[in-house]
């Protein structure tokens, strides 16, 4: 019905407030079905049987039925007429524009109408799932299909409804005539579909993924069907068309689609459902027919055109993402590269030049199962010399569970594969293998359909044996700085085994020990950069893939010495005589690694053409070359001879023999008056100069003829002043001349005396140690130099530069006391007379004898952070500074601790006292001793030992779970305590067999999480405190439990009859091969009774009483077998499903619908409504209390 202006009405309730349809019509001879399509922007007005006026805003589809045989009054606007059509005894009133023509076969495009018209809540309860398609853009259905395929306009109004909300249902009873009429309408619908009627359900969700491929006779409404109990068919509306492209109502609009644009020349297409054939595990063939244009006056003249088809496939559900796999003009396509045992959904779209794109209905199919995929290569988890343990993972089973695995191997012969293992386990141990041998394995999986292909091969080796020790290496050749060695393979070594050799060497006298010199697979090597003439020790190792052999016997070889270097340049020793010369030389810096055996001295005249002659060959390093010509130049060179050969000659030395020395001189004489410390002497030149000019004079002097002479002057002058003489002494003087040839003879003696002066320096005093702290010094009187000595002065000190006078007097001795033992002292004596103070004599030194050591000054206790690995409960570490030894080396120390316990240690500065009592205070002191005795004790210190480390506590498991274990140990709080110094280390064994720390802290409980179900885990525990870490406990084993099944969703209850209802629930998959059983309970009050236990997912409850409320709940159980037999582990119960049974009564046609309407309006509160009501009441009470407290208490 289209209306431009709605009539003026006083009250126009909305559609949700006025019932559009009574419960059911029974016993009528005729029924009026009115289908009104309201366009956008228009209003449809209707008067119902009870006199109410209802206005419906477009866009909408309004189906109506009259329960009493009369047509309700309809306001028809200008330009519209109502038309009554009767078919097969069924009258229909159609309202359409005045100029419309009735085209029952035409399917015009509907406008953008609401996807769903809400029925009155008292008549049509909400289904448990939405009946309209998803909102575009959510990712479930591509948005380009939403506007082309709107859902049906509430066709569920004409089918049996079941309410699943809160377990209640509205029961409507139909009579036999109504059922026949619906069957008739279904038959007409099938005929129209067979004749090319447009039938497009691309956007209508099917009842379930398993029912998407059902035939057109399946009872589907808005994605929901009656299931196994759906005995009533749905009512399909007749097609009503309008001219001029205006939107018209469609009885089958939920199954078709049309364009939203109006065009004058437009084809209406009907696209049949594609067909799937030749379904295999990885391929299927899809075929379809071209779209057929609907027959109408406008389309009869159109000619067929070519279409382009596009095939889209989805394996993620009907609302999932579709992928285009084909585009072309063919009408069949083979889908390849599919997954076995997988649900696929396919649709075909067609497009032409003059038509909009048309999409077929979705067709679903499931590929066949097949043999499993080839598994991955197994992995080696453990290997020994004679066994290999392999482990593998399961591959994709392709829809059929893998039942067994086939493991083949080549038996280590690199030949054909043979069966090694066949079974359902995922690991296998192969024993009785050969060491160090290569084996190759491959794996295949088998299910109920067949055997898969073999996966990749796995080559692996068993552990071998190390080679035997080889023979020692042999010396092939030796050089100055290299050695060439060779060796052979070890006796008993396998010829197939690849060996490498490690040659280790040790230099004689080296502290570094053996070091690697060669590492390789050769049987010889040359070691370079060695020291010459040095002995080296060698040993050899053989090495293969399994390890290193023992060493060979140690052998010793030496390098060769080298030629020595050239000696130093010869030098003249002594004077050069006219007939001989004495030369000397130093040994070479480089001896060549060996001792020098002899030297070779060669001499030659400096004139050209002279030959070298050997003047000397021997081991000494000096020689006198005699029988030389005076005044002649000679060249000399020297070389040395060693074990390495003769060296190069040294640099050449050139010498020349001297002339004849001058003759005898006259004795010297005194010039002037003598002084106390000097005299002036004068002499004459010699009468004979020796053939050479006198170059200098030498004046020698001595205290007497018997004493050694010393040179007083050397020069060309004929006089000199002799200084440094002693007063009151007589000296003897001699003079001689020298020229180029040498020195002449000495003159006769001349005696000359000096004037008196201060005393001479005193002789060196004699020091005698009387005790370790007392020395007696004695001295003799020095010459007085012509004046009597009046006193002596003694200086004393520990250093030469810091002595001080300790005695002044005429005595010739003095006793010095208060000295330190084993100390060196210095002293000197000075004499005094009337002429002055004499010089100090020579310094005398004396050392006091040694004594017992001094007392230890510093004695400390080592800190705890400086100790590692010591039990602090029974040990104390001492540290002290070594005292003065007083001249005798300290031998050791006496440590006194405890009750006069004395411990003697060597000469160390630290010691650890062991085997002490824990938690005990000790008084400790120490004294040093040497060969002379024991020194005094040091000041005592006090130290206390730590208590003993705690023993490991008993470990137990307080709470067992399938994925965690709560462990408990000891007695104490579960949380950390600041006052508790004891710490605990909890260790758990990992997959590699190692114990790793999972908790460290003061708590007495710990929860180990992320564990696997039904698995045994091993633990150790250790306690530690300030005294240290205690021992680890024994290994504890705790096992996790099996995980219970998850909670089942709330069951669904369907009433099958007056006294029977069926309870269904969703199944659960088996858990690791364990079967699943279910327990169904019926709750009455606070108690629940078990009414079913078994593997089924549905149960029919008999003897259900009418008008009673029942609550059902379900839990899943896991059946498994252990050592005690079959066990069952049940999970949590599902939420309660509430069900109210009602009697199915027939509604009389003449009965008043008002009481039934009021009864249907009464509705039990749901759990959510009841909770919301409690929340509102609680909030109201809280606000009242707040107001009362504010008013009466605060104010």
Shape: elongated
End-to-end separation in angstroms reads: 67 Å
CATH fold topology of the domain at 1044-1141 = Immunoglobulin-like
Low-confidence region ranges: 1-31, 99-175, 195-267, 296-302, 1146-1164
Most strands sheet? 5 strands, antiparallel
CATH top level assignment of the domain at 1044-1141:
Mainly Beta
CATH superfamily annotation of the domain at 1044-1141: Immunoglobulins
Q: What's the pLDDT, averaged over the residues? A: 77
| Quaternary assembly | single chain
- DSSP strand tally: 80
Helix-strand category: mainly beta
| Total of helices | 3
Radius of gyration: 63 Å
What report would you give on this structure?
By secondary structure, the protein is mainly beta. It has three helices and 80 strands. Strands 13, 14, 16, 17 and 18 form a five-stranded antiparallel β-sheet that branches. Strands 28, 29, 31, 32 and 33 form a five-stranded antiparallel β-sheet that branches.
